[in-house]
Amino acid sequence: MPPKNGAWSILDVRVINRVALTNESEVAICLVLTPANLKDEAAVSVKWMMPVKIQTKIIGFMGYNYSIMDNELAELKAAGLYRSLKTIEKTDGRFVWINGQRLINFCSNNYLGLANHPKVIEAAKRACEEFGAGAGASRLVSGNLILHEKLEAKLAAFKGREAALVFPTGFMANLGIISSLTDENDTIIIDRLNHASIVDACRLSKAKLQVYPHKDMAALEKILKRSDKFKQRLIVTDSVFSMDGDLAHLPRIVELAKQYNAITMIDEAHATGVLGVKGMGLEEHYNLPGKVDIIMGTLSKALGSLGGFVAGSQTLIDYLKNKARSFIYTTALPPSACAAAIAALEIIENEPKLIQQLRDNINAFTLSLWEREDGSRQRVRAEAPTSPIIPIILGTAEKTMEISQKLFERGIFLSGIRPPTVPEGESRLRLTLTSLHTKEDIKCLASSLRALIPA
Ligand SMILES: Cc1ncc(COP(=O)(O)O)c(C=O)c1O
Q1: Which of 15, 114, 158, 341 is the most exposed place for a label (fewest CB within 10 A)?
Q2: Distance 98 CA to ligand 1 centre (A)
């Protein structure tokens, strides 16, 4: 304790525990005190650390001026665009529990329920026991496990390619593939609605980025026509567009690529395990096997695990192992994630009925939306969906969040999607169906949507 008499100065106030980042927060602080005549901390023989709990107005933290962030956050709140996390206390794939309430989950990418499949969970557990919780190093140092190679062989076979390479996430796969294959002599041509990871990969690359309106094949051709000065023309598209659920027009893309000598790359994040009878993806859906040069995908959606991958020629894979920075300079995928994805691929191979179940649910939902309470039919969609992603576009962010909250109150978990994830004025509920949903779940959703959103 400092002496009771004598003048003391506060040398420093250190926040040691911040309870919440609100303006009026309870914090624990340490006061570093020194006698008033000794201002130099080095000369202080006694420092007094006093943890206290006070009500204080936080104006900065460790010297960082947060006012710019505070202002931006306030603007987001005012525009109805502030994002916050919902805490899931428990899940079995079909349901989630939030604040003790059980809700049917209609916004997960766990399309085949494999994240919760007993064989997948068992495989992940076993891998943890055999190899540990983490890989311990990057693949090129000492993190290359037999599980990675087994998974890559399986992915290559699944996609009908010579070889494959896994990355820690799909996002990192896109960053690594696109940025290492292109330079300032090249152009990358992308759909306007491609995933953020493709857009960021293009930003990392020195190639010229050219964007065509969503699925506008005439615009793509126009760009290709005027791009013959570039050494490489790389066309990249989502297979299933992540916020709209529609499919890229692969037959025309492949035709144009051939005509204009361009390279093709598809992002199969939402197509793997979903499109085609065997779940192989967009090529299988359109019966165009082997027509695309580079196939990228993720293990985190229908495969129920975590990680990204690329499948293609052996040369492409060898090149990426040597050049892709998001593969080289990062720790290898954890053993449990590899084993879970291997088990998921085996289930897809052996139980194609899972994919059929998903398709049945997509059809059931389409039908129930068409059906009125009195049994007559009401058309609410222009076309039947082919993928499990069904956008319900509501326009404003406020309206979207209001309906999302009302669904929540009815026991349905369906998050709102707002700008910048989707364009201004196109806020939506991004509904996803999975093979785990029952016909009752789907009926409950459809009748709630009918009640809350007038046709
Ligand atoms: C089209 C698309 N590509 C890539 C990714 C990134 O995949 P991951 O979640 O494995 O990082 C996503 C994920 O949302 C996606 O929707």
Answers
A1: 15
A2: 25
